[in-house]
Write a structure and sequence with these properties.
188 residues, single chain, globular, alpha+beta
Length: 188
């Protein structure tokens, strides 16, 4: 069975309070990085309407291309949990990101947006399948994303809700839009 990501994103009015709570619960910072994502769409299918994702991600020493299929009732639950199988292709090095941009442009893909975010990730030592990220997104705001990797969507959703409650973020507003859409809306 394939692993899927079950995730939910929320507005984060006070990142310092969440950092303190993560520390109290035993979470450890596992990474801090800046990512620049360039999003594309096809000329014949509007990925903004289908809620598909084709992006090139860059960060220090790393680059990849990611595709996420369209959203529908099966991938986007009533509880605002997204569960999709991602296809990721790691490029041989960060310098390959420019070549990937050229390739996508050459085959007619349309650049939609460029998103820059600073992400700090946390993980509990007893839960390898659970990642909590605090994202500061240029021109969009600060958010918390809770992500569970699993084969069983229902069990992962229950675990995600339990983690959000423990972190005292369950009452923060859910953000259904991808960062791409938030940055595009801020530019209008």
């Amino acid at each position: 069975m394939h692993l899927i990501e079950v995730e939910r994103k929320r507005e984060l009015p006070d990142a310092s309070a969440l950092r303190e709570r993560l520390t109290q619960l035993g979470y450890r910072e596992t990474g801090h990085l800046t990512e620049v994502d360039t999003y594309y769409s096809r000329p014949d299918i509007d990925y903004m309407k289908t809620v598909e994702c084709l992006r090139i991600r860059r960060r220090e020493g790393f680059a990849e291309i990611t595709y996420k299929p369209s959203s529908n009732a099966a991938t986007h639950s009533d509880a605002d949990v997204i569960a999709k199988r991602e296809t990721n292709v790691t490029l041989s090095g960060p310098d390959q990101a420019a070549a990937a941009d050229e390739l996508l442009t050459a085959i007619g893909m349309i650049e939609l947006a460029r998103v820059e975010k600073t992400r700090t990730t946390y993980q509990h030592p007893d839960h390898d399948d659970t990642i909590v990220s605090i994202d500061a997104v240029t021109h969009a705001g600060t958010f918390v994303e809770t992500e569970i990797t699993a084969t069983d969507t229902a069990a992962a959703t229950t675990h995600l809700e339990r983690v959000e409650t423990q972190l005292a973020i369950a009452d923060h507003p859910v953000v259904n839009l991808p960062y791409r859409d938030l940055v595009m809306a801020a530019a209008d």
